[in-house]
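Q: Could you fold this chain for me?
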Amino acid sequence: MKVLIVSTSDIRGGAARAAYRLHQSLLTKGVDSQVLVQSKTSDDYRVLAPETKLKKIFSRLRQALDSLPVHLYKRRTKTLFSPSWVPFSNVVKQINAFNPDVVHLHWVAAGMMRIEDIAKIKAPIVWSLHDMWAFTGGCHYDEHCDAFKNECGNCKVLQSSKEFDLSRKVYKRKLKTYAEIKNLVVVGSSQWITKCAKESSLFKEREIVTLTNCLDTELFKKIDQKTARNVFHIPQDKKVILFGAMSPLGDPRKGAKELFEAINQLDLENAVFVIAGSSKPKQPLSFKYPVYFIPPLHDEVSLPLMYNVADVMIVPSLQENLANSIVESLSCGVPVVAFDIGGNPDIISHKKNGYLVEPFNIDDMVDGIEWVLSNKSHSALSKRARESAISKYSFNVISEKYINLYESVIEGSKP
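A: Sure. Below is the predicted structure, expressed as structure tokens.
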């Protein structure tokens, strides 16, 4: 079986990392898997990317060009919005020249390809939803507006007051393009994103299945906590609360504001707060507990070390599909506290491997953090966290499910 995974990047960003991990898991099963990207960071020869200096420069330029129409909306929020309009990427030409049995799209924004290009792919398509972009008018998360159920316009993310704004134009382009695609199966990586896709006006007639991301649970495992803390210079005799994400202090959706409020309400002795994914900011943060910073990490060796410094991981996202950080943390035996929203209930079993917080209730978040840290059976909680990740997200479990899906899609595309 010949599978081509298409992703804007290979290992930079949560969606890219999920796509690459799937690629790795398929290789363990003998599948001929390759990855086509716009921006390559790994040295994997199976990852295909622009090779000449000129092509690399143009790839970076495409991202800037794609965002130009968005800049016309001066009052827009910080939520990412992708028009995907820049032509001449040659991605479809590369896909069709590769002649795969199935094309597996992942996160393909940042100017990688035009929306219209998707209809030109000749092979049957599987499309994994890592956020809401595929069925919205351009936003990657809709900030709870629900316009995707009907027809976008008056966009909340763009802070637009016009019905026929950029979101409506992007929506219309998707509507026209998707009508031209015959062989497409949509994959939601959480029950929540699957439900949203089924309710959307763009995908409501499509076959949609739920199939989660995978993780190498042999890499993400328990490591001696003392060793991990020594590496990152974290005190050995403290309870460590970990918060980490891509741009944890810059993206309001990540919930830093809500978490910081909860941290200052905690009543704990001998605790420290660790923020991962960010260097120390110029303006110091004010907390009742000492704060340590771990700069962005990208490799699969240092990330497990990072999780193993912690006694509890906090993922306070206000909207979330399936957070890699939750699965990674659990696989390292670190219980997670998160709001009971999005895909979080798929991963966290309340008071079994973590704590699900009543949405946006700061007092309950405080209770959840204190419950984990004061739990007399913390070692049992840690063991259940690890076991839950292995049983649901390991390479062996998920790769088999995707292979079965590919075979079904290929068979269904035959005349």
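A (continued): Residues 225-393 form a domain with the Rossmann fold fold (CATH 3.40.50.2000).
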